[in-house]
Amino acid sequence: MNAAWTATLQQFDQQLQLAARSEHTREAYARDITYLARLTRLEQPEQVNTLAVQRALAQLRHQGLSPRSLARILSSWRNLFHWMIRQEHIAANPCAGLRPPRAPQRLPKALSVDATMQLLDQPSEGRLQWRDHAMFELMYSSGLRLSETTSLNVADLDLSQQLVKVSGKGKRERLLPVGRSAADALRRWLEVRGSTQDDALFVSEQGTRLSSRQLARRLEKWRLQSDCEQHVHPHMLRHSFASHILQSSGDLRAVQEMLGHANLATTQIYTSLDFQHLAKVYDGAHPRAKKTPDNS
């Protein structure tokens, strides 16, 4: 960088120090601003306009930087120019209105129906395995989050009606159906749960509420016993619930209600999972789906 850019960066860094920003954060700002100086090739930061910023972002994207990295870099530039406005070095922020490219949406991983049955149908013996079986059956049966499962109390269950009351995000309560397999597993667990001062539905050997980490470890052990080759984390049972219900019913609104999503758009990601399933069925079954060899 030339003297003008270096002086501006030093002054900006002093402001970051006054704001008690960490050394790591200040180093990231310095690196990002160095990118801008090198890519724009302008003599002074005051000469940077919106077009120059857009071109710099395009070059970084061409170099293979991820959308997340580009978002961080653009934020650094925006903050620099915002500071320069306060210092009356420039009148407007050249980054105003610019947005980084959106990261591709990651689809949640779900088990196939067969893999789910393999996971849940393994035999269980003894108190801890009966508890684990009841937990995992309930998570898949009702689409529960990990935190929702560990926060359940015995009083939240109504097995006579096969219902469970769940307190989700934002303390929003919802009443969910409990499938027959889950209800049977829960009845067996309650018979051996024993008396404890903790109201928790799922308790440890010490009689205390099971933690999220303990549940995740038990699921991994359960997976290994079932010979399931696919890695399974607790949220996959919820994803599998949503995907399988949607495949069978196509009722997106019902799935939204059962999952406790405030926004339907959050639930719509499962339509992509459903399409992937349909695409596999089509490719395997339709006589015109498979490509024929090119004999030309």
From TrEMBL:
Q: Which Pfam families match?
A: Phage_int_SAM_1, Phage_integrase
Does the keyword 4Fe-4S feature in the UniProt annotation?
no
Keywords, ordered alphabetically: Cell cycle, Cell division, Chromosome partition, Cytoplasm, DNA integration, DNA recombination, DNA-binding
Enumerate the InterPro entries for this protein: CB (IPR044068), DNA_brk_join_enz (IPR011010), Integrase-like_cat_sf (IPR013762), Integrase_catalytic (IPR002104), Integrase_recombinase_N (IPR010998), Integrase_SAM-like_N (IPR004107), Tyrosine_recombinase_XerC/XerD (IPR023009), Tyrosine_recombinase_XerCD (IPR050090)
Q: Which domain of life is it from?
A: Bacteria
The reply on keyword Signal is no
**Domain Tyr recombinase per the UniProt entry, residue ranges:** 106-283
So where's the catalytic machinery, residue-wise? 145, 169, 235, 238, 261, 270 (o-(3'-phospho-dna)-tyrosine intermediate)
Q: Identify the residues that the record assigns to the Core-binding (CB) domain, covering every copy.
A: 3-85
CDD domains annotated for this entry? INT_XerDC_C
Please describe what this protein does.
Answer: Site-specific tyrosine recombinase, which acts by catalyzing the cutting and rejoining of the recombining DNA molecules. The XerC-XerD complex is essential to convert dimers of the bacterial chromosome into monomers to permit their segregation at cell division. It also contributes to the segregational stability of plasmids.
Q: Which HAMAP family match?
A: Recomb_XerC_XerD
As for family, the record states: Belongs to the 'phage' integrase family. XerC subfamily.
Q: What is this protein called?
A: Tyrosine recombinase XerC
Gene label: xerC
